Amino acid sequence: MAFRVEHCRKATEFFIKFNNGSKAYLQYAELPNRVLDFQHTVTPEDQQGKGVARVLVKEGLKYASDNKYLVQPTCWYVAKYLDGSSATDEEKQLDIRHKL
């Protein structure tokens, strides 16, 4: 299943709206020195286990890369993704934990 990820800079979130009106999202904050703090992911219960959070994280990382940001993975899911084997080397290079 393909998900359409949208980005709202004003709300500082990447999100996916579902037909039933629910929404999954990745919230972030912009920190000094071009760092995005990926703070929180939420997936509606009926969408869990379908790769929704992973799609949101990948889109957030793509945005960070395209716009020359590093990422602070405060959210446990983002940290787990970046620490796992699914993350590309390019995505892992965005992780500020590896720059300290």
Describe the structure.
With 100 residues, the protein is α+β, with helices and mostly antiparallel strands. The chain has one domain (6-98): Gcn5-related N-acetyltransferase (GNAT) (Aminopeptidase). It is built from 3 helices and 5 strands. The protein has helices at 52-66, 76-83, 89-92; strands at 6-8, 13-17, 23-31, 35-42, 70-73. The protein has a 5-stranded mixed β-sheet with strand order 1-2-3-4-5. Strand 3 (23-31) and strand 4 (35-42) form a beta hairpin. The longest helix is centred in the middle third of the chain and has 15 residues, at 52-66. The mean pLDDT is 96. Belongs to the NATD1 family. This is Protein NATD1. Residues 6-96 form the N-acetyltransferase domain. It comes from Caenorhabditis brenneri (Nematode worm).
Task: Summarize the entry for a quick read.
The protein is an alpha+beta fold.
Number of domains: 1
List segments where confidence is low: pLDDT < 50 over at least 5 consecutive residues.
none
How far is it from the N-terminal to the C-terminal residue, by CA? 37 Å
Instruction: Give the CATH topology.
Output: Aminopeptidase
With helices defined by DSSP (H or I, 4 residues minimum), what is the helix count?
3
Task: Give the class from helix and strand content and strand pairing.
Answer: alpha+beta
**How would you describe the shape?**
globular
What's the CATH H-level homologous superfamily?
Gcn5-related N-acetyltransferase (GNAT)
The proportion of strand residues reads: 25-35%
Q: From the 3D coordinates, which CATH architecture would you assign?
A: 3-Layer(aba) Sandwich
CATH class, named Alpha Beta
How can the largest sheet be summarized? 5 strands, mixed
Q: What is the C-alpha radius of gyration, as a whole number of Å?
A: 13 Å
* Number of extended strands: 5
Helix and strand string, N-terminal first? Answer: EEEEHEHH
**Strands in their spatial order, largest beta sheet:** 1-2-3-4-5
Mean pLDDT: 96
Helix content: 25-40%
